[in-house]
Amino acid sequence: RKEVEQDPGPFNVPEGATVAFNCTYSNSASQSFFWYRQDCRKEPKLLMSVYSSGNEDGRFTAQLNRASQYISLLIRDSKLSDSATYLCVVEGQGFSFIFGKGTRLLVKP
Amino acid sequence: NAGVTQTPKFQVLKTGQSMTLQCAQDMNHNSMYWYRQDPGMGLRLIYYSASEGTTDKGEVPNGYNVSRLNKREFSLRLESAAPSQTSVYFCASSDSRNTGELFFGEGSRLTVL
Description:
The complex is a heterodimer of chains A (109) and B (113). Chain A has 109 residues and is mostly beta strands. Chain A has strands spanning 4-6, 11-14, 19-25, 33-38, 45-50, 55-57, 60-65, 70-75, 84-91, 97-99, 103-108. The termini of chain A are far apart.
């Protein structure tokens, strides 16, 4: 099992739709989890951290399921500007962070 | 606000040539990282430095060396470039593992012919 796995997509959705991404991880000892966003040919930027109790930031909701070792990202009321690649990030050994390959989202008018 | 600065932004090398990618951060972060990103592969960790004076191998360290010159600077060296090292390289820094927010430079696009 790879350390961090994501469905590469692309997810093609109309504006206003709700879309969800999942990510699975292999290291049961990982304590920190994040979602990053990366626009084409740009550097990744933190979208949100993922907490055990789940957390919400506007239209974005992140959840963690430790028993099944997956995290999720829900985007409600999709905007054209949400089109990007979403990267799942999991704490690795030492002070490292392991990235998934990313899920590409395309929001269409 | 400079944040994380990488140089050069673009570079073309011939097989066997050497070069150093420079990275500097002005946020007083302890940890610094070098990742490479290839199509369909996501970001893969090459080396990281948890604090000044320490460096550790990541997932794909072969063919690279690093130097944590001081708290601000973390360089990545290719001693003998190979076409397989054609990639986009990102430097990042973080103030602590617990916050998890990595601040990235804009990337360095390297082509090895």
